[in-house]
Amino acid sequence: MKVLKYIQIMSFAFVLFSCTNEEKKEAIQTKTVLKDGIATSVFKVWGNCEMCKETIEKSLAIDGIIKSDWNTDSKLMTVSYDEKKINLDQIQQKIASVGYDTEKFKGDDTAYNSLHECCQYERK
Questions:
Q1: What's the pLDDT tens digit per position in 59-72?
Q2: Is the pTM of this model over 0.85?
Q3: What percent of the chain has pLDDT over 70?
Q4: Contact indicator for 95, 53 with CB cutoff of 8 Å
Q5: Is the separation of the CB atoms in 56 and 92 below 8 Å?
Q6: Quick one: pLDDT at residue 101?
Q7: Alpha-carbon distance 75 to 93, whole Å?
Q8: Would you say 15 and 84 are in contact if contact means Cβ atoms under 8 Å apart?
Q9: Residues 67, 71, 75, 81: what is their CA dihedral angle, to the nearest 10 degrees?
Q10: Residue 5 backbone phi and psi in degrees, to 5
């Protein structure tokens, strides 16, 4: 009987800690590093495919952005920018304006609805 109770407690603990780790993976927070006046930030942007990658990165072909790269697998955007010309909120708003949700801003509904079918992800 004690063995059964021990197994139940261990199973519960395993499930509890497994769920906690999953929540941490989903709750990615923006990270920014400054070096020589250039900021590099990493944040989540929802999307699905290479067409999404092209649209998201193209939205950041603007003054102040030095480099942008969105990873289709991890859904993480890495962007290097001149903080004197643009800030992180403006960057995330620019991405949201073409229909993609970021950690901080919901994508424009009209833009989202006009995305190709394969680019329409499950929204939060």
A1: 999 999 999 999 99
A2: no
A3: 77
A4: no
A5: no
A6: 97
A7: 17
A8: no
A9: -10
A10: -65, -40
